[in-house]
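Throughout our pipeline, every protein is held as a single compact record rather than as scattered files. Such a record has a labelled line for the sequence and another for the backbone structure tokens. This encoding replaces a full spatial description with a residue-level series of whole-number codes. For reference, a complete record is included directly beneath this paragraph.
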Amino acid sequence: MAGRAQRMKSRLRQSSNHRGGVAAMIAILGTLIVFVAVIGGLLMEKGHLGVLIQPAELLIIAGAATGTLRVANPSTFSRRLPAGLRAFSRAPAWASRAISTRSA
């Protein structure tokens, strides 16, 4: 019985880790949608992108996106977000293996 309980605990731990990764990816996608919407709306109104380069504009947009992210998600998510962002920015492991096997 002890072995079965250990396996179940292990499965629960793995599934909760997976859900955390999915939540991080959804939040990253939501943040990207905010930026695309702001830039797209500006361009639709024939605005100049140089306006967004101003520090005040970047603060407003990044602050709105970050604030929404914090309010809409639990604190455990906020602690996992930096790791999710790092994982999102790295190339997948299979990509480097595929490139190295082609060149050989």
